[in-house]
Amino acid sequence: MKQDFMFTSESVTEGHPDKLCDRISDAIVDRFLQQDPYARVITECAVSTAIVFIAARFEPNTNVDFTNIARQVIEQVGYDQPAFNAKTCSILTSLKELPCDHLYHFDDQLTDADIEQIPVKNQVTVFGFACKQTPALMPLPIWLAHKLAKQLSTVNHKNILPYLAPDGKTQVGVEYRDRKPYRIHSITIVASQDTTQPDLAQLQDDIRQTVIDAVFADEDIRPDAATRIFINPEGLFITGGPYVHAGLTGRKNAIDTYGEYSKHSGAALSGKDPIRIDRIGAYMARYAAKNIVAANLADECEVQLSYSIGLARPVSIQVETFGTGKISDTELTTLLEQHFDFRLAAIVRNFKLRYLPALTPGGFYTKLAAYGHVGRMDIHLPWEATDKVNALV
Amino acid sequence: MIQAIHNVVPGRARYRVEKLYRCKELKEHLEFHLSQQLGIISTSANILTGNILVLFELNLSTDRVKELVAEIEQNYSPKIAVNHQKLNSNLQQKSDDWYALDIDTVLAELQTSDTGLTQVVAHKNLQKYGTNTLPETATRSELRILLEQFQSLPVGLLCIAAGLSVATGGLADAAVIMGVVGINAAIGYITESQSEKIIHSLKSRDRPLTSVLRDRQIVEINTAEIVPGDILVLKAGNYVAADARLIATENLSIDESALTGESLPVSKSTASLIAADISLGDRINMAYKGTLVLGGQGLGVVVATGKFTEIGKIQAMISQTPVQTTPLARQLDEVGSQLVMLASGVCTLVFAAGWLRGYGLLQMLKTSISLAVAAVPEGLPTIATTILALGIQDMRKHKVLVRSLNAVEALGAVQKICLDKTGTITKNQMSVVEIHTDTKLSLVDGDLNIIADACTLKLIQVAVLCNESVVTRDCHGEYVVTGSATENALVYMAIAAGIDVLALREQYPLVDTKPRAENRNYMRMLRRGSLDALSSVSTQHQHQQHFAVKGSPGEVLDLCHWRLNDGARVPLTAAERLAIALENDRMAGKALRVLGVAYGYESTELVWLGLIGMADPVRHGVKNLIGQFHQAGIDTVMITGDQTPTAYAIGKELQLSRNDQIQILDAQDLVNVDREALQALCDKVDIFARISPVNKLQIVQALQAVGKVVAMTGDGINDAPALKSANVGVAMGTGTDAAREVADIILEDNNLATMIVAVSQGRTIYNNIRKAVHFLLATNLSEIIVMAIATAGGFGQPLNALQLLWLNLVTDIFPALALALEPAEPDVLQTPPRSPDESIIKASDFQRILFESTILSGSTLAAYAYGVTRYGIGLRASTIAFMSLTLGQLLHALSCRTERSIIENIPANQYLNLALAGSMTLQFVVLAPGLRDLLKLAPLDGWDLIVIAGSALFPLVVNESTKQFHGTQL
Asked: Which parts of the sequence belong to the Cation-transporting P-type ATPase N-terminal domain (chain B) (predicted)?
């Protein structure tokens, strides 16, 4: 196993077209669940120039204003330029109703036998990961990339740099020694600007001060003299957003998870209601991995869950600790099987996935759409809880 | 005094009008005003006899028509009448750069004022400058139609043939030829003058009245009588009647596409323009004749009328207005001229072959000429036009008013129909059914019994205060509410809640109105006075003015910072906003139109009052109708201003989409959408939501750009450009004048179900034209083949010149016309529309026609061979051939009725039965002794008749059994 290496991860702001699509999709999921906790919906979204496409399949007992939600999201994200804005963009919705499946309208009073009777409806292999590189138990490169992206977005929203536009992306390269983060190798930030066309040198200066310096102020590892910092290396990025490049739901799976530091499933996370195991399975796997690391059973842990259509339990649970485990991977697997319920209905019930949108002001899934579905310290996520540590130890 | 002279024939009456004799003014008065009446098809007054002939629709009684004539005659006052005859020599109107002058100069130059001309001056000006009419394409006079019957190539040839006969001493021959020419001309004259009348009646409908200021009063006058100096009153939805310099405008916008080709409406103002040589489109202080007022209102002083207007100049330049021809007629013309080439080639061959075989030169010349006459299908375009015109008349019986020939053709090819939601799909009868205030939901039952708490009451008040409906009381003290259906519903709700609407509005006088606009989906009214009582905790001081706001819930909610809690103003929290949004979704999901209502003292910090949900019931039978359109292969598209969930709920209810997926495009601004993207999108979309009427034009154009034949319904003024642009613009009988004037068809009973009838008619007419053409081509071709083969093979002449003429010009005409009146095939609405690029006679049709005519001629030649073997070449054999071919052709008409087997159950065509019976009778009548000498026929015996019957029936059997009908071929 390699010990010394360099690894990069990237993140994008919520204004990036792919993320904008994720956010619209998740805002729709939120709205459905706010109206009816048992609502079923799958939404996909694409955006290009000034046209937003929404394709949704849902059970017919609820009706939401898809276009209005999309417009609200576009406005929240901050698109207000004539080229693309919430008011004048065109939205094509393609709606299809699903047959009602009452099996999935289960409530919280499920017996164990009931849970066993509710099979998953999708096949997927999902991964969860945790490591001791950061307090959030996330790999450092994606952690930093998210932090930079979020800060970039905050600077835009707070109008600290008035010329910034919502679209942007960040990348952080971290040098590892002995499988531990050693130094920051490189930082790249591409920020979009509105049509006022600021001076490039000024922009680079501003971003450095307001974004990079602010982000690393409370980090242990900071850029050193040799760290290569690129800010808009290809020059200004005027307007950015959907007007310049198209976006699609579920295209940023690595950014949603661990920044490619560990494996991740190919299935999109956003735009799916909690009955989709390819979404919530990923959360469950993270929950398991994080608890193992938090319980000091390993420094790094990757949990793999494989589900097959028609079965309630995963057909395979695998743990990989990359040689950092205090006990063997097989024993860890047994521990997981003992203490975690990986069945669909159990996950939905235990995480309260259907009620969170109504309980969380501003929506629950909407907030997941950017800056990662896992390893978040800024919002309370049930799968980030380390409440199984005692049981595991 | 009106006296009925003749009113036995339904739909046609002649009256004697005493004063009409030698009074040209009354004639024009009567004709003009009668043509404005619904149900009158055409009128023609005769000043020499003092009679007036009125053609009218059958639903009008003759008594009613008589009343109408009497009424109009009474209204006639000789003083106003103008001697139009003198006006032909009118003065050259001054042409000037009127846009560069200021208003006062213009008024002075024209010796008028902003209060209008006096009647006297107007009268003088009319004498001086002439009428405000454009040089029209003269309608063909009856005489001309008759003369034109003799001006065709076949008639010329026939005259040569007659001349030859005279030269060779065959006077009787010549007489028969000319007789045939006469019969043919008579048939042509009758059908053509009939269709000419129908086509003319299409035109006479758009001669509206125009409002002008005269003697300080607004009067409606005949558009033709507008003179320079008149003050035009421009209102939305009207065509501008003459070129005018604007002297007052209020949000005036005009569609000048008729003149400039620019489809975007132009905003007008009154300011003088300084620069010289400003292009027509930029002269924003002018209004031009023929353009359409889309919005706002204004006054303009007329600076040019008639042929001196810009559009008149353009017409003069082109020197003629295009004659109404249809693509169909053009196609047939092409086919016709190709066949002329073919026929003349064959005729030359027959002539050469006959001459070489040693037949007499003159005889061969006559036969070839006759063959040419028989073979040249010169009447194809005429037949098409006649059928289209007859179709128009037929559609009138079904309450479908067709306004152009092209529309009939396009109707049959419609692939997509865009339907307005309001008024077309729904009844446009809004009523409030739900009110949601503060978290409380009130269901409004049938009696509008509202248990009004303070907040609900305030909401109802604001809904009345932010409302453009005009409310008055009639003499019985009942409220009279006029305005849009939505706004009226709100007023009725308030009345039902026991609010004195008039007093309420008086209490808070209106200061300013900010209407809904393209990028603002709410209406705001600023009114004097405070809506909160002095004692109210929420107000520290009495406000002078308040805003009353209602509109799209989302947008209104965005303007709100507060809500009412037991009368007190408290901040609106995010959770409450979400609750309101959820409630909006829920109401919209029930297909309600939802409005948000708020009031306040600062325009962006309003107090949220609640949501009002209104229902507009879907018209009875629309769902069924949508299904019928789908079955006929026509895509349905709904256009609505509603928000997406409301639109979705209705779309779902109506099963608007042909698959289980409904595509909704929500766009307020289609202008900025990339053209290609819009085209790609529009083709897929089932519902256009939150669309303003202005965007309809873009939708039509995008759909047409991807090759669709589009029908569009519309009622409003804003719909006019889209209706005009659509292949078939459909207006309702109650629509605005603007919509009715530009529409291709008008559904007089306001019933969309009539549209499916129209489509069925359109398709049937197209199919019938094909059937008639098919029949004519097949029979003509069979004659050519018989003559060519017999002559070339040296078997004598099966048909002589006269027989050919008889066959072609007498016996074939009636079945062809009868085929044009075929009833609709039973599956006409079960097949997809034809492709617009498909030519009327496809290559496969030509093959089929060739096959059928080969069988026909083969059978005839066989009968002829029997005759030749039995009697030798001569009269008797040729009589057998003549009878075989004629009867074979007549029976072939049966086969041409449909592309499926005629044994199948297809509706009977009485006209065809009559035509066949008549033609066959004629055919046997000429066999009678005495008459048969004219056509040079010989008497026949029983065997001959059996052979003839066999050879006539044989092609029918063969052609029927070889039909290959596939459902899609129609």
From this structure: 97-170
H or E element that contains A318: strand A316-320
Alpha carbons within 13 angstroms on the beta-carbon side of residue A367 total: 15
Sign of torsion over alpha carbons A217, A221, A226, A230: negative
Other Cβ atoms less than 10 A from the Cβ of B58: the count is 10
- Tell me, what's the pLDDT at B207? 52
**Contact yes or no for A51 and B519 at CB 8 A:** no
HEC string for B482-548: ECCHHHHHHHHHHHHCCCCHHHHHHHCCEEEEECCECCECEEEEEEECCCCCCCCCCCCCCCCEEEE
Q: Do B663 and A67 touch (CB under 8 A)?
A: no
Strand partners, B547: B526, B600
Judge whether B105 and B49 are in contact, CB under 8 Å. no
Taking only the tens place, the pLDDT of each residue in A283-315 is 999 999 999 999 999 999 999 999 999 999 999
Tell me the Cα Rg of chain B. Answer: 35
**Under 8 Å between Cβ of B207 and B29:** no
- The pLDDT tens digits of the residues spanning A339-361 come to 999 999 999 999 999 999 988 88
Q: Which two tokens stand for residue B251?
A: 């949000």
- CA torsion, points B186, B191, B197, B203, in degrees to nearest 10? -130
| Three-class DSSP category at B223 | helix
Distances (CA, A) of B593 to B91, B316, B637, B643: 58, 51, 19, 8
- What are the structural domains of chain B? 2-81 (3.30.70.100), 98-135+206-318 (2.70.150.10), 400-427+617-750 (3.40.50.1000), 431-615 (3.40.1110.10), 759-961 (1.20.1110.10)
**Closest alpha carbon to B752 in B428, B420, B416, B411:** B420
Whole-angstrom distance, CA of residue B164 vs CA of residue B34: 52
How far apart are alpha carbons A343 and B723 in whole angstroms?
A: 59
Q: How confident is the model at residue B316 (pLDDT cuts 50, 70, 90)?
A: low
How many residues are listed for chain A in this entry?
Answer: 393
Handedness of CA B183, B189, B191, B194 (dihedral sign): negative
Q: Where are the extended beta strands (E) located within B83-208?
A: none
Distance from CA of B302 to the nearest CA of A (A): 40
Nearest CA in chain A to B647: A65
Complex ipTM value: 0.85
Element (H, E) at B456: helix B454-465
Q: Are strands A247-248 and A80-81 parallel, antiparallel or unpaired?
A: unpaired
Residue in the structure block whose two tokens are 């897929």: B684
Query: The pTM is what?
Result: 0.77
Give per-residue pLDDT as tens, B783-800.
888 888 887 787 877 887
Which pair of structure tokens corresponds to residue A2? 């390699």
Q: Which of A128, A106, A26, A101 is nearest to A342 (CA)?
A: A128
Q: DSSP for B279-301?
A: -GGG-TTEE-TT-EEEEEEEEEE
Q: Which residues make beta-bridge pairs with A44? A: A55
Chain A residues within 8 angstroms (CB to CB) of chain B: 31, 34-35, 48-51, 60, 62-68, 71-72, 87-97, 361-362
Per the model's pLDDT, the better-predicted residue between B360 and A33 turns out to be A33
Average pLDDT over residues A149-155: 94
Q: Which domains does chain A have, with CATH numbers?
A: 5-12+139-241 (3.30.300.10), 112-133+277-392 (3.30.300.10)
- B276-309 per-position pLDDT tens digit: 677 777 888 889 888 878 777 889 999 888 888 8
CB contact under 8 A, A92 and B669: no
Q: List, in sequence order, every residue forming a beta bridge with A48; answer none if it has no partner.
A: A51
Q: Map B800-841 to HEC letters.
A: CHHHHHHHHHHHCHHHHHHHCCCCCCCCCCCCCCCCCCCCCC
Q: How far apart are CA B668 and CA B518, in angstroms?
A: 7
C-alpha span between B920 and B807 (Å, rounded): 11
